[in-house]
Design the sequence.
């Protein structure tokens, strides 16, 4: 009888341990997810007793504010279209997205243990939430929207030295102000152009020729002498019986010229010489297959290893037409990191969090993300990209007087129609202060549609920096 | 001001953690008792080497007889020569009228003497020395008795600040606190049985009172009265139940009462919360099934104790299983089957599940035959499938269990419970800062979720630990009880506490499908609280009586001495 009692005790003990483990899982792992779940009314009850904090651009331009009108608090988005994908929306019926969601606790002022935070949490009196200051340069953001809004696409401008996002727009956009959002909700959701999607960090596109930057860096890493070797471009390349066409026969090209002319054969051949395994490793060094740590939800950059295992897939991917997909923000990071001696910084959107009394509560220091290439390799690729924008290259439309701009054009083939126009650029060439990534969906040639937008943004960004 | 509020909101959590700490310190001091031993210093026989040691434990017998733990093969030693007994934290040594006497520190042992560290006993040619590590029998154990009162005081301060309590309610809570603390001090002072279970119960009751008051002072006042009544019942049980064994004589009365209660509920019951499990007596409602669970355990313990030897051997063949004869198995199956059926008719599935599980545990403990467990689990599966197809609400429950997020409207209660628990974080939002209004039935079945929201993960883990300790101590009582009836009784009661806790906590956290039953001692509910007090009272009584039993068991021919 006693043996059975002991067994029962062990059984009960085991059950309690499982319960304790489950509770820990529920609170630690599930807790953060559930606290912002749409069906959870708790944040909204707290919301009713605080004045939600505002969101401001780099130099204090107000983007979003809660305006108290009588006993009602209205959330005002001053630049709805321009900032919609960054701020997200905030609606009792539709929930919260973007920064409104990611920084909900800060905006409500319930994160932390200062007097004000506790008062907000416990509802002792009506308090104000924290204010969020972005890294966004307001003029640049407005300009980017102005240039992009006629098209569908995305623009990302960042400072490669510290990862700060200076501008980030996605077109088409929407109006997050409550009345307009509620009114247009069904239309917005069903729109085939997906205005609610933040293309800049969640859109995944084929890279087209801008992929050649990456292939060049991986190739240089594998073959240090690559820069001085020449390849004879015949205008097409036959791999295992399949013909990969080129724009024209570029003749004898080295790496720099191949980049400048965007020679497909050269890079397809380079990809094959690198080989699947090294190419996949190279992509992983750049961050393929990983999620970008960011203030907003971002798409994981997928890495389809199988498509790189066969020669055709590898050659196509190396020149940018394979099954590789990337997001505009990721491409801006890649371009910036090449100029930044191969060091990729963690992108960030929120610069500071300030209390209602304007004291800085949290300051975002630059964070290192990864090393994508050796400094010599990065320098050589940068040289090649410089010749893209100089006379004779494909991206001359991005050149600026007195400033050395480096760039790369891309025209990504896609099943939906005309090619996507890509342009990535950074400037000045030695240690860039700004990196830009522009995509115009179905915009045709990158050099003609996307490059001028990049040029305007670089011009504006550098004039403000200096 | 804000610091005061902060302190008030987290004082209960702090006290709970302190309570665990004190319990832990006490249990450490208890372990040292177990290291006490008797060591051979000079041996008169090759069979017993010098240095051989016997653990003193609760006491032992010395002598030449084979029933003696300390077996001394020496012709000068009587068959039962002397004994050592642990009483009130001290070891006493007594000569049992031996022919040649015992020398204690070189003096003949006439009256019982206290055994100290290094004390020498000479019996025949043998010299034995006692090794008793310094007793740190913690004075801190008296601290334990204060905790129910401290928790009530800390909680009511914050509730008073939030103007949920008036002076009348505070007076009521003060009376309850005094009753609880005095009860705890008395059991600690008696130093008999397992006083810890009363302390644990006190802490849970106090915590329950605070949170019920926090949800609605109306329920709080009622629960406070139930607490007063419950503690009175515990003491009445100690006074009037001279020996728990007398319950054995009334087992069939308890059986009849169980069935009558359940039949009455079917005939005259009123429905509340989806289950028709309430009896209305004027303005007073009670839930008979809460009492029936106690009665059934008493009946089962009695019946199984009397028939366990027959139930252990199977003569009736059923496929690969051998079952006991019908005359012995029959009554058991009929009574339990009837109880289950009646509960299912009331749609009180949580209680039915609890009954079935307790039945299985007790049959298994009595017979030690795993085949009964297997058989029972098989029957359970059949029953569960039947329920699933008979009752539409079981189907919805199952759907909610499998994916509560699919239709948040129909699974509102469980989803809000999950939000509450996960929203509490590690330290909780602080007492009074949760959102109990969002969870239906938060003061009864879902009180665990509210505690999770306000006391956090830490609070929940402490509460789980308290329940586990309570069950552990209950089963320890079962293990230390010399007779089968007491063992089965204590085991059944511990099983009630354990299973009820697991069923409802698993339910509100969506670890298992939700079936509504109260969380023992914490949830609001008069019937539930009173019946649990009854349970605790008997459990404590068993632990006290069994200590007496141990004395008689060691020296059957001698009455217990007074010290």
Sequence:
């Amino acid at each position: 009888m006693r043996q059975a009692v002991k067994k029962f005790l062990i059984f009960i003990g085991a059950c309690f341990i499982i319960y304790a483990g489950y509770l820990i899982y529920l609170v630690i792992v599930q807790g953060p997810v559930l606290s912002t779940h749409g069906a959870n009314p708790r944040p909204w009850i707290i919301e009713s007793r605080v004045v939600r904090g505002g969101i401001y651009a780099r130099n204090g331009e107000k983007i979003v504010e809660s305006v108290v009108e009588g006993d009602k608090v209205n959330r005002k988005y001053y630049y709805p279209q321009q900032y919609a994908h960054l701020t997200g929306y905030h609606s009792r019926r539709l929930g919260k997205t973007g920064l409104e969601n990611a920084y909900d606790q800060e905006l409500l002022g319930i994160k932390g243990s200062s007097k004000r935070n506790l008062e907000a949490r416990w509802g002792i009196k009506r308090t104000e939430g924290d204010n969020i200051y972005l890294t966004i340069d307001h003029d640049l953001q407005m300009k980017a929207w102005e240039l992009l809004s006629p098209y569908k696409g995305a623009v990302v401008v960042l400072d490669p030295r510290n990862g700060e996002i200076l501008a980030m727009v996605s077109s088409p956009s929407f109006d997050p102000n409550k009345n307009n959002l509620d009114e247009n909700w069904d239309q917005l959701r069903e729109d085939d152009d997906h205005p609610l999607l933040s293309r800049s960090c969640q859109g995944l596109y084929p890279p087209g020729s801008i992929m050649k930057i990456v292939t060049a860096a991986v190739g240089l890493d594998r073959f240090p002498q690559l820069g001085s070797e020449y390849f004879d471009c015949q205008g097409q390349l036959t791999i295992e019986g399949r013909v990969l066409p080129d724009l024209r026969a570029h003749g004898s090209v080295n790496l720099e010229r191949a980049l400048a002319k965007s020679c497909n054969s050269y890079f397809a051949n380079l990809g094959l010489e690198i080989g699947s395994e090294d190419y996949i490793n190279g992509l992983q060094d750049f961050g393929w297959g990983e999620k970008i740590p960011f203030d907003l939800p971002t798409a994981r950059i997928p890495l389809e290893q199988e498509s790189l295992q066969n020669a055709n897939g590898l050659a196509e991917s190396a020149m940018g037409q394979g099954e590789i997909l990337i997001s505009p923000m990721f491409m801006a990071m890649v371009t910036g990191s090449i100029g930044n001696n191969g060091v990729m910084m963690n992108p960030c959107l929120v610069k500071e969090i300030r209390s209602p009394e304007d004291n800085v509560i949290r300051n975002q220091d630059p964070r290192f993300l990864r090393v994508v290439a050796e400094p010599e390799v990065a320098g050589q690729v940068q040289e090649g990209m410089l010749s893209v924008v100089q006379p004779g290259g494909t991206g001359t439309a991005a050149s600026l007087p007195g400033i050395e701009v480096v760039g790369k054009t891309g025209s990504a083939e896609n099943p939906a129609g005309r090619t996507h126009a890509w342009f990535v650029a950074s400037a000045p060439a030695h240690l860039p202060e700004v990196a830009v990534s522009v995509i115009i969906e179905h915009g045709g040639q990158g050099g003609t549609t996307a490059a001028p937008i990049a040029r305007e943004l670089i011009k504006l960004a550098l004039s403000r920096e200096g | 001001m804000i610091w005061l509020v902060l302190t008030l909101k987290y004082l209960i959590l702090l006290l709970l953690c302190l309570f665990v700490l004190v319990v832990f310190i006490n249990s450490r001091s208890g372990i040292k008792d177990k290291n006490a031993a008797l060591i051979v210093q000079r041996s008169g026989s090759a069979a017993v080497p010098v240095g051989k040691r016997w653990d003193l434990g609760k006491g032992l017998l010395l002598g030449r007889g084979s029933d003696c733990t300390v077996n001394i093969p020496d012709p000068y030693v009587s068959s039962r020569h002397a004994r050592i007994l642990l009483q009130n934290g001290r070891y006493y040594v007594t000569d049992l009228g031996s022919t040649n006497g015992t020398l204690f520190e070189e003096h003949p042992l006439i009256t019982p003497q206290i055994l100290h560290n290094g004390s020498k006993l000479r019996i025949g040619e043998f010299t034995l020395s006692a090794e008793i590590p310094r007793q740190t029998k913690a004075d801190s154990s008296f601290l334990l008795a204060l905790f129910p009162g401290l928790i009530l005081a800390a909680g009511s301060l914050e509730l008073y600040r939030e103007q949920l309590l008036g002076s009348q309610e505070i007076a009521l809570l003060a009376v309850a606190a005094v009753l609880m603390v005095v009860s705890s001090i008395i059991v600690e002072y008696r130093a008999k049985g397992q006083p810890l279970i009363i302390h644990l119960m006190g802490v849970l009751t106090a915590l329950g009172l605070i949170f019920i008051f926090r949800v609605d002072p109306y329920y709080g006042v009622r629960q406070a009265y139930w607490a007063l009544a419950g503690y009175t019942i515990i003491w009445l049980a100690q006074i009037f139940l001279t020996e728990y064994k007398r319950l054995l004589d009334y087992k069939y009365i308890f059986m009849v009462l169980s069935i009558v209660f359940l039949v009455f509920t079917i005939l005259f019951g009123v429905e509340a919360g989806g289950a028709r499990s309430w009896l209305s007596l004027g303005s007073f409602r009670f839930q008979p099934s809460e009492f029936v669970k106690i009665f059934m355990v008493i009946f089962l313990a009695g019946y199984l104790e009397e028939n366990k030897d027959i139930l252990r051997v199977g003569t009736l063949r059923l496929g690969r299983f051998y079952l006991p004869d019908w005359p012995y198995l029959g009554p058991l199956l009929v009574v339990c089957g009837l109880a289950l059926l009646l509960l299912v008719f009331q749609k009180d599935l949580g209680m039915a599940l609890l009954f079935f599980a307790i039945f299985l545990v007790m049959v298994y403990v009595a017979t030690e035959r795993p085949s009964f467990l297997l058989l029972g689990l098989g029957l359970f599966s059949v029953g569960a499938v039947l329920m699933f197809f008979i009752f539409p609400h079981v189907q919805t429950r199952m759907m909610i269990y499998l994916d509560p997020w699919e239709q948040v409207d129909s699974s509102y209660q469980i989803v809000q419970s999950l939000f509450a628990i996960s929203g509490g974080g590690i330290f909780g939002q602080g007492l009074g800062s949760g959102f109990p209004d969002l969870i239906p039935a938060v003061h009864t079945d879902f009180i665990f979720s509210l505690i999770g929201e306000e006391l956090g993960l830490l609070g929940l883990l402490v509460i789980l630990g308290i329940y586990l300790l309570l069950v552990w101590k209950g089963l320890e009582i079962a293990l230390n009880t010399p007779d089968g009836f007491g063992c089965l009784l204590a085991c059944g009661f511990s099983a009630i506490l354990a299973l009820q806790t697991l069923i409802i906590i698993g339910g509100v956290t969506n670890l298992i499908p939700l079936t509504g039953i109260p969380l023992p001692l914490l949830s609001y509910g008069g019937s539930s609280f009173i019946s649990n007090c009854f349970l605790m009272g008997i459990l404590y009584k068993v632990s006290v009586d069994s200590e007496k039993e141990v004395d008689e068991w060691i020296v059957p021919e001698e009455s217990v001495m007074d010290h």
Remarks:
- Chain A has a mean pLDDT of 90.
